[in-house]
Amino acid sequence: MSAPLITLTTDFGRGSPYVAAMKGALLTVNSDVHLVDLSHSLPPQDLRACSYFLRSAIPYFPAGTLHVVVVDPGVGTDRALLCVELKNQRLLTPDNGCWTEWARFWPQPPKVWKLTEKQYWRAEVSNTFHARDILAPVAGHLSLGLPPDKLGLPVISWVELALPKHSLKNDALVGEVLSVDSFGNLITNLPADVYLNCLQRIKAVVVDGQPVKIAQVRTYGDAAFGTLVILVSSGDTVEIAEAHGNAAKRLQAGVGSSVKLLLVPPV
Amino acid sequence: MSAPLITLTTDFGRGSPYVAAMKGALLTVNSDVHLVDLSHSLPPQDLRACSYFLRSAIPYFPAGTLHVVVVDPGVGTDRALLCVELKNQRLLTPDNGCWTEWARFWPQPPKVWKLTEKQYWRAEVSNTFHARDILAPVAGHLSLGLPPDKLGLPVISWVELALPKHSLKNDALVGEVLSVDSFGNLITNLPADVYLNCLQRIKAVVVDGQPVKIAQVRTYGDAAFGTLVILVSSGDTVEIAEAHGNAAKRLQAGVGSSVKLLLVPPV
Amino acid sequence: MSAPLITLTTDFGRGSPYVAAMKGALLTVNSDVHLVDLSHSLPPQDLRACSYFLRSAIPYFPAGTLHVVVVDPGVGTDRALLCVELKNQRLLTPDNGCWTEWARFWPQPPKVWKLTEKQYWRAEVSNTFHARDILAPVAGHLSLGLPPDKLGLPVISWVELALPKHSLKNDALVGEVLSVDSFGNLITNLPADVYLNCLQRIKAVVVDGQPVKIAQVRTYGDAAFGTLVILVSSGDTVEIAEAHGNAAKRLQAGVGSSVKLLLVPPV
Predict the structure, then answer these.
(1) Could you say which of A164, A182, A251, C230 has the lowest number of CB atoms within 10 Å?
(2) pLDDT tens digit sequence for A87-108
(3) Is the pLDDT of residue C215 over 90?
(4) Cα distance between residue A207 and residue C13, in whole Å
(5) Size of interface B-C (CB pairs under 8 A)
(6) Is A32 helix (H, G, I), strand (E, B) or coil?
(7) Cβ–Cβ < 8 Å for C183, C140
(8) C67 - beta bridge partners?
(9) Nearest to C71 by CA among C91, C89, C44, C36
(10) Of A103, A114, A15, which is closest to residue A59 (Cα–Cα)?
(11) Shortest Cα–Cα distance, C233 to chain A (Å)
């Protein structure tokens, strides 16, 4: 039987000892786990970036995975810590809404518990590092088979965080950039199906108010080096890229940049 | 039975093949180990940063953990390589003092061996990469159950490296910044217990010679956005932060910056 | 029996969800694997950097290792995806030549298959993320024991990519910088054996056309702080470094910089 799968996602950065201490605290409870780093380089305290990250990553994990997710500007205040169960996966995370954009995709409601049972925490809990002192040991106990309802009482409300939504009008499909990847590709919130439906009607693409000359393609390599392209991303939204280049630099665009597709009105 | 736990900490950086080659050399001796990356982004050749990192991370790991730690400006010279045993954990590291600040916290003396038995090394040893050619295979052999006294002779002296200490005077508690985390929080060497004892007597906080307006808090979220705060860090020292901001940027401060708490003299 | 060893090497960067999604897709097929990150910070779309990385890392891994390597500027075009078998190790990678510099070192020819059997892929394959949708699940199936010849037909030709070669003349040994590590060391393509053969005849070292004052050493610590040194690297090529410093910054040199050793002609 394989070791329980636990993923780690934080904004702790790559040089600090926080990631190490959190791993140690978890492994002290159960060293027979399969630890997988997702990222420790989320933008500091940026819940929207965390929300986009989780929506893009969690759906690909198998049933039984436990995700520990820590972007926690409210650490040490009275914000709750949660155990969330949905689609046979579990998350341990501060109650800050980072997971609700992911949960939105599933018809079932999640089961959620508030972590209050201190016997599963480290004996001493600091005010500024609940990842090490609460979430990590609780992850260890869950991986040993502890049922989530031992961690605290179920709750039926929590912080909700939604990513900005697109709007479709007669003459325009309007959205914004949710993420810029390491290639400089601009990942927007324009849904692939909506985009494909109005593909024949696109008159112009406008980024941050500036019209851009751009080619509609299936993939980057369909265009010549240096061409700006618009395509369906691997996350099923619209993406703007430069073939073998960096669209973010080229367009001076980033997270939050507006993306507007001007449309010929339907007949 | 779970696989032996081995952690890796280096200053090799994230893009180089050195981390990969070291992992390969270890796994070639024993592939049935539980490898955990702590960090490969320690500041290059910075033993003080390494010392702070280890002190902050190792105490959270379970008995039986083997830590391979490589910040090694003296590679290939006659500096020794050591196997250190303390508190049921082991370290493999160059003899540069990076571990002695951690060891200082424990009353027991460590057991230390000097690595000299070449049958546990790679057949060819380069002059510039002992992590791959000596430490990694030795870690593999230890994880297979080899007793440390097979690696070489015990030694009773080694390089000591101490982090700078605070000083407490009648009218001031004086220390410095040991580390800046990814949030820009300034982690000092002022001990929490000393700070808490003189909390009522603090007249002013002076960073790098400049008085700063600052709020005493329990955690970041206790103050309004943008407020400078002083608090006890998760490592039980004094920390200076900006609520939802970056104190290092705000104060233009960094590792080595002086931090002085001016005190009302005791009656 | 230990879990199958699978390494991951990409240019996805450390903050994006791509690495996470790829890991999830692999673990969904087989969660009982030993996942090892080699690097996710290769320079974006830089096949030469990837080639250098693989040549420097793969030889240290044990028989049976499966390497998933993704630097894929041609994703979604008609470039093939390959399974390569050589020296009892396997690679899954786009057909872009990134592995051929490594393969050059072995007398045996590799066995290579083109991935065409879609039953081992994710049901939906995006045009821009074959790492997640094809390579990751195929890695999972291989780790479960699927023979490579089930993945597609064998092929006998593929893209070849060679790193630039040195040239040895009567009066000069000429090469270039292949890589700069995190210490600022300049790793060249001048072979150690060729260098050692002409060691007594070196009159001058010229980097990017500028003669540099440099000491011939065995290792960094053999010279005083701040001295430029030339030595044999851990990858058996010539390396230029600054003792306890950063040669790349000092010399304003980088990947592609020319390195010329002026020689006294042989008698």
Answers:
(1) A164
(2) 999 999 999 999 999 999 888 9
(3) yes
(4) 24
(5) 116
(6) coil
(7) no
(8) C7, C91
(9) C44
(10) A103
(11) 26
Does B160 reach chain A within 8 Å, measured CB to CB?
A: no
Q: At what angle do helices B18-29 and B136-143 cross, to 10 degrees?
A: 30
Q: How far is CA B209 from the centre of its chain?
A: 27
Which helix H or strand E contains A124, and what residues bound it?
none
| DSSP string over B205-236 | EEETTEEE--EE-SSGGGS-TT-EEEEE-TTS
pLDDT of residue B213 exceeding 90, the answer is yes
Using CA atoms, how far apart are residues B238 and C104, in angstroms rounded to an integer?
Answer: 56
Three-state DSSP class for B60?
helix
Distance from CA of residue C94 to its chain's centroid? 14
Q: Do C232 and B24 touch (CB under 8 A)?
A: no
Distance, first Cα to last Cα, chain A: 60
Nearest to A108 by CA among A85, A91, A82, A81: A85
- How far is Cα B122 from Cα B137, in angstroms, rounded to an integer? 7
Separation CA A167–CA A175 (nearest Å): 7
Interface confidence (ipTM) of the complex: 0.96
- A164-215 tens-digit pLDDT: 999 999 999 999 999 999 999 999 999 999 999 999 999 999 999 999 999 9
C111 touching A, CB under 8 A? no
Please determine, for residue B106, whether its predicted confidence score (pLDDT) is greater than 80: yes
Query: What's the whole-number average pLDDT of chain C?
Result: 96
Answer yes or no: do A77 and B222 touch at CB < 8 A. yes
